Structure formats: C-alpha cells, structure tokens
Amino acid sequence: MRDRETRDERIDGAVTPAGIPESVEGEGSHPESSRSLLVKIAHLYYIENLSQKEIAQRTRISVASVSRALARARDLKIVTISIQGGENDYSGLEIEIERTFGLSECLLVPSYGRIEHTYQGMAAAAADLLSRTLKPGATLGVSWGDTLRSVGESLPRMPSVRADVIPIIGALGWIETGIYPNSIARTFAQKMGGSSYLVNTPAFVDDPETRAALMADSNFRPVRDIWSRLDMAVLGVSGLTADSSMFRSGIFSEADLAGMREAGGECISNFVVFDGRGSMVPTGVSDRMVYLPLEDLRRVRTVAIAAAGAAKAEPLRAMLRSGICSALVTDADCARALLSLQSA
C-alpha cells in the first residue's frame, strides 16, 4: 500500500495514476502512452458520448485534465471536426457578415437566375427570423418596396405567431401593384395570424410645415403610439438610381434622386437618405415625407433589412453602417459583393 501511495498523486480529489501523459497531467510520461490516452479520451467523448465527468471517473483523472486532453487532441489533429452543411451551407459567410457589420444575425439564401425564386428563399429565411423574434401580441412594423412585397407574398403561413403589423410610412403607391404600404402590412399580418393597422395619412406632402402638422395631429397620435412600441421592424433599401422601385412607381423623379445624390446620399431606406458612412443626409424630399422618425426606429429592439442581388450591395453597405439594423436577410451574391466592397 505504501508503495502505491508514493506512485500516485492526488489532484482535485481524483487519483492520478503514475504514467499519466505529460500533455495531460504532469511530467515524465511516455510519448506513446500520451497519445494513446488522448485517443481514448477523445473516443469516449465524441463517439461514446460520455460526459467529461464520466470520463474522469473512468480514467481516474480530474475533469480539468479531461478538458485539457480534449483540447490537446484537437491541437494534435487526433480529432478533426467538420460540419456537413450541404451544398447551400452559408454559415461561414453569414458569420463573416455578422462580424464585419456588427449584426446579431445574418440569414443567407441561394441566388437564383430568377429573382422571384430568390425572394421565395428569402421569405423562408424571414419566416424563421419572424417566428423566433415575435411573440403572440407583438407588433411588427414594415416599410415599403418590391422586395418586401415579394417576400411578404411568399411567406409561409405562421398562425401561431399571432403578431400585429403596421406600416411605418404613410400611404403611397398604387393599391393594385401590391406595393402600397397598407397592402404589404396586411399580407404580413395574414401570414402571421395577426391584425393589420392602416396608416392612411399620405406619405408625401407639399412642404415640411404640413408634415410637422400631420405628425402632431391628434388624429395621427394612435399611429405614433403604436410606432413607439414596436417589437420589430423590417426594412428594404434602395440605391438612388432610376432602376429603384421609388422611381419606377413615380414616387420620386430623376431630379429628386439627383438632388439626393448631390447632397451626398448613397441609399434610401424607409424614406431616410443615408450617405456612404451610414449617416443621415437631410434633404428637401425627406422633410416632406411621413415616416417613423429615425430616433424611434433606433429604439426598436430588432430591425431587420431585406435586400437581394449584387446590385444592392452598395446601398446595403451604407445602411448597415448606420448601426440601425441588427439582422439581415439576403442572398449569397449580395453577401459576397458586400464583403468585396468592404475589403476594397
């Protein structure tokens, strides 16, 4: 008995037998026994699914030693870990986007030859985000544009979400196009088993004084009250070019867009113009628009932005630099273009 006691060392209450490898416990181990034990510990943990505590009891070493052994096994490439995500696994790209732009979550989908197919993929990703973020009774604010209309129409039904939806801009566009803000809000609400609120105040008025009066009007206060307690908002983003839905829908003229660009604007989201650094650019057009004030938008806990296509990368980068958005739903082509711009 005495001879055994001189050869054993007690660490953290566990008996460590003589000959435990140097890389696991102490000094004086044999290289082959060291590797042999590392392999055994790794097998018990990764193949047999034993806990570190169970392995410690079985091998008569401490739990801390098991943890070090597992780390050592990875360092020596005894254990290699791979994730088989399949052909459309974008997890690495998503994490890179999240890290680069300080996002809580980025959801990527494949880029298809037909944009409507890309929108369908984005709708599935958006449904996942919405169902995890919104609880029954929550309120979602939605903006305006082709992307949000298409994503909303392709959303699967999620009746258990039971969230209400409100536009976060005034009324504009044409009802029959489906891009009308109230129509987009109604579509989202129907898919999520909730109710939609109407905002019938015009989005575009004649002058800043009229806008200020409308925003302060007691009849508009219920809308402002709902805007002030949004749980989540979903935005789109556009470049200030003639191929944007704003121009094609007749909301802005080429002269309007040129004025925004001359003021330093690079993108517009929810009718707020941002420069390339993500700072708001005051313009005469924005001063006449009725929309959720930027300071209120910044207080919303989760603000997601949806954009598709490599052409959206530049305006999207400007918007992400604003720090307003915490989540992004886009496609792989846009994501790669976004990172390419950022590293240029």
Give the oligomeric state: single chain
Shape: elongated
From the 3D structure, determine the CATH topology of the largest domain: Rossmann fold
The total count of strands amounts to 11
Question: What strand line-up does the widest sheet have?
Answer: 3-11-10-6-4-5
* Order of helix and strand elements from N to C terminus: HEEHHHHEHEHEHHHEEHHEEHEHEH
Strand content: 5-15%
CATH architecture of the largest domain: 3-Layer(aba) Sandwich
Biggest pleated sheet? 6 strands, parallel
Q: List the domain count as a whole number.
A: 2
Instruction: State the name of the first-level CATH class of the largest domain.
Output: Alpha Beta
The whole-angstrom Rg is: 28 Å
Structure write-up:
- With 344 residues, this protein is an alpha/beta fold.
- The protein folds into two domains: 2-75, no CATH class; 91-343, Rossmann fold (3-Layer(aba) Sandwich).
- It has 15 helices and eleven strands.
- The protein has a six-stranded parallel β-sheet, with helices on both faces.
- Strand 10, helix 14 (313-320) and strand 11 (327-331) form a beta-alpha-beta unit.
- Helix 7 (146-154) runs parallel beside helix 8 (181-191) and helix 14 packs across helix 15.
- The protein is elongated, with a radius of gyration of 28 Å.
- The model is unreliable at 1-23 and 25-33 (pLDDT under 50).
